[in-house]
Amino acid sequence: MAKIKPFKGIRPPKELVEQVASRPYDVLNSEEAREEAKGNEKSLYHIIKPEIDFPAGTDEHDPKVYDKAVENFHLFRQKGWLKQDPEEMYYVYAQTMKGRTQYGLVVCANVGDYLSGVIKKHELTRKDKEEDRMMHVRVNNANIEPVFFAYPAHQELDEIVAGVIQKTPEYDFVAPDGFGHHFWPIDDKAVINRITGIFAGIPYLYIADGHHRTAAAALVGAEKAKQNPNHTGNEEYNYFLAVCFPDNQLQIIDYNRVVEDLNGLSDEEFLKALDENFEVEEKGFEIYKPEKLHQFSLYLSGKWYSLTAKPGTYNDNDPIGVLDVTISSNLILDKILGIKDLRTDKRVDFVGGIRGLEELKRRVDSGNMKAAFALYPVSMQQLIDIADTGNIMPPKTTWFEPKLRSGLVIHSLS
What we know:
24% strand; 9-stranded mixed β-sheet; alpha+beta; 13 helices
């Protein structure tokens, strides 16, 4: 059962929130962060991408870069750009994309729940990326950025949130990417206790986005527990910052593939090879999007094709076998193109569906890539089935949008 707690959030005053808030650290590179933070000393990038305060090309893992994060975090608090709430609270954080709004609860999730599997994962993490975020949590003694969780939708929680959002939001703005962000503190003690109580009856939480941040936060918490001879389990470091959304409000968007070459095959030979496991249909010059599970789009030499997997090429009773990323990886990338490992092979690249199928067409038309494959998005239910059966999704399967804005609230570990 999920153990959560309220916390004294560290956050910007209302009038500064748009200057402080930023995109998450892992969706842009150092140069892009430098550009976005230009002329804005209050941007959170100075804490989460502190290499921007050094000459271009500075290694982001250099110890002086982590030291700069700490220095900037202290500076932000000193100058009043970030202030700590006097009382422990929960918060409602809502995001609006293309007219659709999803409502999450900002909570502190429990380190023990991650280590024991109450918080379920569906992705493998990389040690180097974990270690980078662990350093960041350690040096700042805080979770500067939240992780993104889903929970099985619960009617009473929906009703509590519906009540909270009747009030004027504390923050309410549209970010430069066009997504709306809305934020309400919950300071009513009875409501806070009820939320904690409801979560205590929810069997599992699911990591939607932020596997590395979750692992890092939990591992640092466990580390601090070991180092404290008087550890009780109630210390602040036993918890980390998460935004939890009901599963029925979340939408996963497609995560597509582009490849550099056809492994020595001509277009005709490649299409003929596809014929063995797919119904191949030419769709012409207009962008063609897959319409259902087990259907793919192929863009090759200026034309779009639909590829429908033939019966017997997938297993709908197997949480991994049902996935279109499994079908495309096994039957196209591996079998025909000789791309065995999606994590390491440089001949394949991945394009988040938020960029649209136009981006696939652009990458191929530019001559940088030879062909592109668009996939039908994974459903939230497929993700939950995989996490529940202890399976791991193939790499680059899910893309959640909108991303959580960083800098709306921070959790201190002491």
